[in-house]
Amino acid sequence: MLGSPTPSGETTYFMATQFFPDTFQRGVLAKIAQFAREAAHSVDKDRIFISGKAYTDALAEAEFDANFLRDRRGLRNGISEGKLAGVLFYRFSRHRIVHLGHEIVDDPHYEHFQEKVIVKIIGSLLNVNFNDEWIRSKIGNKRPSGLRNNFQNLYGELMYLTCRRHYNQESLALFFDTYVYLSHAIDEIRMLESKLAHS
Question: Can you give the pLDDT at residue 8?
């Protein structure tokens, strides 16, 4: 178990885990602090605090969840990145890692602030953009299959689910696994469009 100071000055102890190595743990904690401060108004950067204890507790529970998921489902070839993302997202959302100073706690800009930071963290880990321009351009448009349903705002749905509804690690895992496929498909469409444009 190694100690390391958090951006707020407290010492966080990282435990050796199977799914989340020490370098990963340190890197994600640094990213949480970075993303939170980037999302804050410039005058509020010193009013954002990161709890190393809450972060460590969340990771310990995520490790337990990942082991349980692997063993219960017999995943001998490992766990997909979407499933690990679902576990991390769930546990990070359940612990109060990002704290706001009393001066800004009621500022509308900071509503669901931790959830927004966590969505960005998971997106960076999966290398996907939940606010992708191609997806946003489709929001509200009719689906080409002839159904009356319109394309939905996936980022908005994820935020609503996180902040207002019930969910578990496996439902999040399905969402993230699916989104990884979608993101890959969009990248392939962009490459094909680029090739067609230059041919």
Answer: 52
